[in-house]
Amino acid sequence: MIKFASLGSGSKGNATLVCVDDTCLLIDCGYSIRELERRLDQLDLVPQQLSAVLVTHEHSDHIKGVGALSRRYRLPVYMTAGSYLESVCGELHQYHSIKHSEAFHIEDVRITPVAVPHDAREPCQYIFEYNQLKLGVLTDLGIITPYILALYQGCHGLLVEANHDSLMLSQGPYPPSLKARVGSNWGHLNNVQTAEFLGAVDSRNLQHILIGHISEKNNHIDAIQSAVAENFRGDARVTFANQDHASDWIYIE
Ligand SMILES: [Zn+2]
Ligand SMILES: [Zn+2]
Predict the structure, then answer these.
(1) What is the per-residue pLDDT across 170-224, written as a single tens digit (0 to 9) for each?
(2) Are 163 and 138 in contact (CB under 8 A)?
(3) Distance, CA of 109 to CA of 127 (rounded, Å)
Protein backbone atom coordinates (compact mmCIF):
# COMPACT_ATOMS: atom_id res chain seq x y z
CA MET A 1 0.00 0.00 0.00
CA ILE A 2 1.07 3.56 -0.72
CA LYS A 3 -0.67 6.39 1.06
CA PHE A 4 -0.44 10.01 0.08
CA ALA A 5 -1.91 13.36 1.03
CA SER A 6 -1.60 17.01 0.18
CA LEU A 7 -0.66 19.21 3.13
CA GLY A 8 -1.76 22.18 1.08
CA SER A 9 -1.61 23.09 -2.59
CA GLY A 10 -1.71 26.32 -4.56
CA SER A 11 0.34 29.40 -5.34
CA LYS A 12 0.73 30.25 -1.62
CA GLY A 13 2.41 26.99 -0.66
CA ASN A 14 2.71 23.33 -1.55
CA ALA A 15 3.67 20.20 0.34
CA THR A 16 2.77 16.58 -0.33
CA LEU A 17 3.30 13.39 1.64
CA VAL A 18 3.99 9.98 0.11
CA CYS A 19 4.33 7.17 2.63
CA VAL A 20 5.07 3.46 2.46
CA ASP A 21 5.22 1.71 5.85
CA ASP A 22 7.62 3.79 7.97
CA THR A 23 9.09 5.64 4.99
CA CYS A 24 7.48 9.03 4.77
CA LEU A 25 8.60 11.36 2.00
CA LEU A 26 7.78 15.04 1.89
CA ILE A 27 7.57 16.51 -1.59
CA ASP A 28 8.31 20.23 -1.34
CA CYS A 29 7.81 22.48 1.65
CA GLY A 30 6.32 25.82 0.67
CA TYR A 31 5.46 26.55 4.29
CA SER A 32 7.29 27.72 7.39
CA ILE A 33 8.28 24.97 9.81
CA ARG A 34 5.55 26.02 12.21
CA GLU A 35 2.88 25.90 9.51
CA LEU A 36 4.19 22.55 8.28
CA GLU A 37 4.05 21.13 11.81
CA ARG A 38 0.47 22.35 12.14
CA ARG A 39 -0.51 20.69 8.87
CA LEU A 40 1.34 17.44 9.66
CA ASP A 41 -0.59 17.35 12.91
CA GLN A 42 -3.84 17.35 10.91
CA LEU A 43 -2.68 13.96 9.59
CA ASP A 44 -1.37 12.76 12.97
CA LEU A 45 2.28 13.08 11.98
CA VAL A 46 5.26 14.92 13.44
CA PRO A 47 8.33 16.04 11.46
CA GLN A 48 10.49 13.43 13.24
CA GLN A 49 8.60 10.80 11.23
CA LEU A 50 9.74 12.22 7.89
CA SER A 51 12.44 10.29 6.04
CA ALA A 52 13.48 12.83 3.38
CA VAL A 53 12.45 15.92 1.46
CA LEU A 54 12.17 15.82 -2.34
CA VAL A 55 12.13 19.19 -4.06
CA THR A 56 10.44 19.75 -7.44
CA HIS A 57 11.86 23.21 -8.18
CA GLU A 58 13.05 26.44 -6.59
CA HIS A 59 9.86 28.55 -6.69
CA SER A 60 9.09 29.86 -3.23
CA ASP A 61 5.69 28.14 -3.02
CA HIS A 62 7.65 24.86 -3.05
CA ILE A 63 10.89 25.58 -1.27
CA LYS A 64 10.18 28.17 1.41
CA GLY A 65 10.66 25.90 4.45
CA VAL A 66 13.00 23.28 2.97
CA GLY A 67 16.31 24.58 4.36
CA ALA A 68 15.07 25.23 7.88
CA LEU A 69 13.25 21.89 7.98
CA SER A 70 16.33 20.00 6.79
CA ARG A 71 18.54 21.65 9.41
CA ARG A 72 16.16 21.37 12.33
CA TYR A 73 15.14 17.77 11.76
CA ARG A 74 18.35 16.58 10.09
CA LEU A 75 16.57 15.57 6.93
CA PRO A 76 18.27 14.67 3.63
CA VAL A 77 17.08 16.73 0.67
CA TYR A 78 16.90 15.45 -2.92
CA MET A 79 16.78 17.82 -5.87
CA THR A 80 18.33 18.45 -9.26
CA ALA A 81 21.59 20.38 -9.45
CA GLY A 82 19.77 23.24 -11.18
CA SER A 83 17.20 23.53 -8.41
CA TYR A 84 19.98 23.37 -5.81
CA LEU A 85 21.91 26.19 -7.48
CA GLU A 86 18.86 28.43 -7.72
CA SER A 87 17.36 27.69 -4.33
CA VAL A 88 17.77 29.92 -1.35
CA CYS A 89 17.68 27.18 1.26
CA GLY A 90 20.91 27.96 3.04
CA GLU A 91 22.83 24.98 4.29
CA LEU A 92 21.12 21.62 4.07
CA HIS A 93 21.67 18.76 6.51
CA GLN A 94 22.44 16.52 3.53
CA TYR A 95 22.05 17.13 -0.21
CA HIS A 96 21.49 14.41 -2.82
CA SER A 97 21.80 15.44 -6.44
CA ILE A 98 19.26 13.73 -8.71
CA LYS A 99 18.89 13.65 -12.49
CA HIS A 100 15.91 13.53 -14.82
CA SER A 101 14.86 9.96 -15.71
CA GLU A 102 17.45 8.41 -13.38
CA ALA A 103 15.46 6.42 -10.85
CA PHE A 104 16.74 6.08 -7.29
CA HIS A 105 15.52 4.40 -4.12
CA ILE A 106 14.71 5.66 -0.67
CA GLU A 107 14.21 2.51 1.42
CA ASP A 108 11.86 0.37 -0.69
CA VAL A 109 10.37 3.19 -2.74
CA ARG A 110 11.59 3.63 -6.30
CA ILE A 111 11.51 7.26 -7.38
CA THR A 112 11.82 8.59 -10.92
CA PRO A 113 12.39 12.33 -11.44
CA VAL A 114 10.54 13.52 -14.54
CA ALA A 115 11.57 16.59 -16.55
CA VAL A 116 8.73 19.07 -17.00
CA PRO A 117 8.43 22.32 -19.00
CA HIS A 118 8.17 25.04 -16.34
CA ASP A 119 9.92 28.37 -15.87
CA ALA A 120 12.44 27.18 -13.31
CA ARG A 121 16.07 26.15 -13.82
CA GLU A 122 15.81 22.36 -13.77
CA PRO A 123 12.34 21.42 -12.52
CA CYS A 124 11.20 17.85 -12.05
CA GLN A 125 8.14 16.01 -10.94
CA TYR A 126 8.09 12.50 -9.49
CA ILE A 127 6.82 8.99 -10.01
CA PHE A 128 6.83 6.67 -6.98
CA GLU A 129 6.73 2.90 -7.29
CA TYR A 130 6.42 0.26 -4.62
CA ASN A 131 5.29 -3.38 -4.93
CA GLN A 132 3.71 -3.00 -8.40
CA LEU A 133 1.95 0.18 -7.30
CA LYS A 134 2.61 3.44 -9.09
CA LEU A 135 1.84 6.95 -7.89
CA GLY A 136 2.41 9.97 -10.12
CA VAL A 137 2.85 13.53 -8.86
CA LEU A 138 2.59 16.12 -11.61
CA THR A 139 2.22 19.85 -10.96
CA ASP A 140 3.90 23.03 -12.20
CA LEU A 141 4.15 22.38 -15.93
CA GLY A 142 2.96 24.30 -18.96
CA ILE A 143 2.24 21.43 -21.33
CA ILE A 144 2.05 17.65 -21.35
CA THR A 145 4.94 16.37 -23.45
CA PRO A 146 4.99 12.90 -25.12
CA TYR A 147 7.75 11.94 -22.66
CA ILE A 148 5.52 12.82 -19.70
CA LEU A 149 2.53 11.03 -21.18
CA ALA A 150 4.62 7.88 -21.68
CA LEU A 151 5.97 7.89 -18.12
CA TYR A 152 2.65 8.45 -16.36
CA GLN A 153 0.87 5.50 -17.99
CA GLY A 154 -0.69 2.95 -15.68
CA CYS A 155 -0.62 4.90 -12.42
CA HIS A 156 -2.74 3.67 -9.48
CA GLY A 157 -2.86 7.14 -7.96
CA LEU A 158 -2.26 10.62 -9.32
CA LEU A 159 -1.76 14.07 -7.91
CA VAL A 160 -2.07 16.33 -10.92
CA GLU A 161 -2.52 20.06 -11.26
CA ALA A 162 -5.45 21.80 -12.89
CA ASN A 163 -4.24 25.33 -12.34
CA HIS A 164 -6.62 27.58 -14.20
CA ASP A 165 -9.61 27.96 -16.43
CA SER A 166 -8.31 29.71 -19.55
CA LEU A 167 -11.24 32.12 -19.80
CA MET A 168 -11.11 33.00 -16.09
CA LEU A 169 -7.36 33.61 -16.39
CA SER A 170 -7.76 35.90 -19.40
CA GLN A 171 -10.56 37.88 -17.74
CA GLY A 172 -9.14 37.69 -14.22
CA PRO A 173 -7.18 40.08 -11.98
CA TYR A 174 -3.60 39.11 -12.88
CA PRO A 175 -1.43 41.69 -14.70
CA PRO A 176 -0.87 40.87 -18.41
CA SER A 177 2.70 39.63 -17.85
CA LEU A 178 1.59 37.15 -15.19
CA LYS A 179 -1.35 35.99 -17.33
CA ALA A 180 1.08 35.32 -20.17
CA ARG A 181 3.48 33.47 -17.87
CA VAL A 182 0.85 31.24 -16.26
CA GLY A 183 -0.81 30.40 -19.59
CA SER A 184 2.44 29.73 -21.48
CA ASN A 185 4.07 26.39 -22.30
CA TRP A 186 6.39 27.07 -19.34
CA GLY A 187 3.61 27.97 -16.89
CA HIS A 188 0.78 25.82 -15.57
CA LEU A 189 -1.78 23.40 -16.98
CA ASN A 190 -5.29 24.67 -17.62
CA ASN A 191 -8.34 22.50 -16.92
CA VAL A 192 -8.66 21.25 -20.49
CA GLN A 193 -5.00 20.23 -20.68
CA THR A 194 -5.35 18.32 -17.40
CA ALA A 195 -8.59 16.68 -18.50
CA GLU A 196 -7.07 15.66 -21.85
CA PHE A 197 -4.07 14.22 -20.01
CA LEU A 198 -6.41 12.15 -17.82
CA GLY A 199 -8.24 11.01 -20.95
CA ALA A 200 -4.97 10.02 -22.62
CA VAL A 201 -3.29 7.97 -19.87
CA ASP A 202 -4.10 4.30 -19.39
CA SER A 203 -6.41 4.59 -16.40
CA ARG A 204 -7.37 0.94 -15.90
CA ASN A 205 -5.39 0.82 -12.64
CA LEU A 206 -6.27 4.30 -11.53
CA GLN A 207 -8.00 4.40 -8.14
CA HIS A 208 -7.75 8.02 -7.09
CA ILE A 209 -6.98 11.38 -8.71
CA LEU A 210 -6.18 14.26 -6.40
CA ILE A 211 -6.30 17.54 -8.30
CA GLY A 212 -4.05 20.27 -6.96
CA HIS A 213 -2.34 23.62 -7.50
CA ILE A 214 -5.77 25.06 -8.24
CA SER A 215 -5.68 28.84 -8.66
CA GLU A 216 -7.88 30.59 -6.11
CA LYS A 217 -8.40 33.53 -8.48
CA ASN A 218 -8.53 31.90 -11.90
CA ASN A 219 -10.34 28.61 -11.40
CA HIS A 220 -13.39 26.96 -9.95
CA ILE A 221 -14.06 23.35 -8.97
CA ASP A 222 -17.14 23.27 -11.25
CA ALA A 223 -15.02 24.24 -14.26
CA ILE A 224 -12.49 21.48 -13.46
CA GLN A 225 -15.25 18.91 -12.97
CA SER A 226 -16.92 19.66 -16.28
CA ALA A 227 -13.60 19.55 -18.18
CA VAL A 228 -12.72 16.23 -16.53
CA ALA A 229 -16.19 14.78 -17.18
CA GLU A 230 -15.83 15.57 -20.88
CA ASN A 231 -12.49 13.81 -21.26
CA PHE A 232 -12.05 11.18 -18.57
CA ARG A 233 -14.04 7.95 -18.62
CA GLY A 234 -12.31 6.00 -15.82
CA ASP A 235 -13.74 4.89 -12.47
CA ALA A 236 -11.16 6.67 -10.31
CA ARG A 237 -12.36 8.84 -7.49
CA VAL A 238 -11.56 12.52 -8.07
CA THR A 239 -10.95 14.86 -5.14
CA PHE A 240 -9.49 18.35 -4.82
CA ALA A 241 -6.59 19.64 -2.74
CA ASN A 242 -6.74 23.19 -1.46
CA GLN A 243 -4.62 25.90 0.03
CA ASP A 244 -6.16 26.09 3.48
CA HIS A 245 -5.70 22.64 4.95
CA ALA A 246 -4.41 19.13 4.44
CA SER A 247 -6.40 16.62 2.40
CA ASP A 248 -7.41 13.29 3.90
CA TRP A 249 -5.02 10.38 3.47
CA ILE A 250 -5.54 8.60 0.16
CA TYR A 251 -4.71 4.89 0.07
CA ILE A 252 -3.82 2.99 -3.08
CA GLU A 253 -3.42 -0.77 -2.95
ZN1 LIG B 1 3.95 26.04 -7.79
ZN1 LIG C 1 6.53 26.73 -10.07
Answers:
(1) 999 999 999 999 999 999 999 999 999 999 999 999 999 999 999 999 999 999 9
(2) no
(3) 10
Contact (CB, 8 A) for 161 and 197: no
Distance 248 CA to ligand 2 centre (A): 24
Can you point out the beta strands (E) in 70-214?
76-80, 94-98, 104-106, 109-115, 124-130, 133-138, 157-161, 208-212
Bridge-based pairing state of the strands 124-130 and 109-115 = antiparallel
Q: Which protein residues have their CB within 5 A of the ion that is ligand 2?
A: 59, 140
Q: How far is the CA of 213 from the centre of ligand 1 (A)?
A: 7
Query: Which ligand sits closest to the CA of 28?
Result: 1
132 Cα–ligand 2 center, Å: 30
Q: What distance in angstroms lies between residue 133's CA and the mean position of ligand 2's atoms? A: 27
What is the overall mean pLDDT for the chain? 97
What is the CATH architecture of 2-241? 4-Layer Sandwich (3.60)
- The residue extents of the domains of the chain are 2-241
Q: How many Cβ atoms are within 10 Å of 114's Cβ, its own excluded?
A: 21
For residue 118, give the ligand nearest its CA. Answer: 2
Residue 190 is classified by DSSP as: B
Structure confidence by residue, pLDDT tens digits, 87-106: 889 999 999 999 999 999 99
Q: Which of 141, 139, 110, 102 is nearest to 127 (CA)?
A: 110
> Which of helix, strand or coil describes residue 82?
helix
CB half-sphere exposure, 127, CA atoms < 13 A: 21
